[in-house]
């Protein structure tokens, strides 16, 4: 499993630019917002956590189609399906490697974009913490869409369309927890704990349904 993790980590970084393309897309989405809403620093500060979360969500969806693409292209997907190790565990390891290569750099880059949106130190810390906790759920949910579309020659857009509605709860509670950290009447812990619960729940059902979809697509 460690060898599989390291292999997928290298493939995720090399394939199409990997983490670099995701971070550049993330920065581009957040950077164009001030040009649209104007130079009002107070407004940018208020909408900053939501904009950073939306940018991270879109950037995370960008590379989901490559989750099982390399195995399908070189034919090793059949070997993965026939191996003795549980397919659910293999999918889980691949999801962790994909998250490390594509979503973790977004978490690291979020403080810089928070400064660009005139967010306070507390808001930047809250956004970074919620992204660290919530972004794995995006990968686990996206694995199901990637497995459904793995047999299609150009399934990248289909993956985003399938996954985006399922990622809305992650976005809602991630933004809610970020706002609660800087707004005194709103408690931080309830939405944050719900966000953790969504990630843990998706880490169980995501690889399971992705494994089912992979077996169905190869039958």
TrEMBL record:
Keywords: Cell inner membrane, Cell membrane, Cytochrome c-type biogenesis, Membrane, Transmembrane, Transmembrane helix, Transport. Belongs to the CcmB/CycW/HelB family. The keyword Transmembrane applies. GO terms for biological process: cytochrome c biosynthetic process; cytochrome complex assembly. Pfam families: CcmB. One of its GO terms (cellular component) is plasma membrane. Required for the export of heme to the periplasm for the biogenesis of c-type cytochromes. It is a multi-pass membrane protein. The keyword Transport applies. It is found in: Cell inner membrane. GO terms for molecular function: heme transmembrane transporter activity. This is Heme exporter protein B. The chain crosses the membrane at residues 12-37, 43-64, 85-110, 122-150, 157-180, 192-214.
């Amino acid at each position: 499993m460690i060898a599989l993790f390291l292999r997928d980590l290298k493939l995720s970084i090399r394939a199409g630019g990997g983490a670099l393309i995701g971070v550049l897309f993330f920065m581009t989405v957040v950077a164009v917002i001030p040009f649209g809403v104007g130079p009002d620093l107070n407004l940018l500060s208020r909408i900053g956590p939501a904009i950073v979360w939306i940018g991270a969500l879109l950037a995370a969806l960008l590379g989901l189609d490559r989750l099982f693409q390399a195995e399908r292209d070189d034919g090793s997907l059949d070997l993965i399906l026939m191996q003795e190790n549980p397919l659910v565990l293999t999918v889980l390891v691949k999801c962790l490697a994909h998250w490390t290569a594509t979503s973790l750099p977004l978490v690291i880059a979020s403080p810089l974009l928070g400064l660009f949106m005139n967010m306070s130190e507390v808001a930047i810390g809250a956004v970074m913490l919620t992204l660290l906790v919530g972004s794995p759920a995006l990968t686990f949910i996206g694995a199901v869409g990637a497995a459904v579309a793995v047999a299609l020659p150009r399934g990248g857009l289909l993956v985003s369309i399938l996954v985006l509605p399922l990622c809305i709860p992650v976005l809602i509670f991630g933004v809610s927890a970020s706002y609660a950290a800087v707004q005194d009447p709103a408690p931080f812990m309830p939405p944050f704990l719900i966000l953790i619960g969504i990630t843990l729940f998706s880490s169980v059902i995501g690889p399971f349904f992705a494994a089912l979809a992979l077996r169905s697509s190869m039958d």
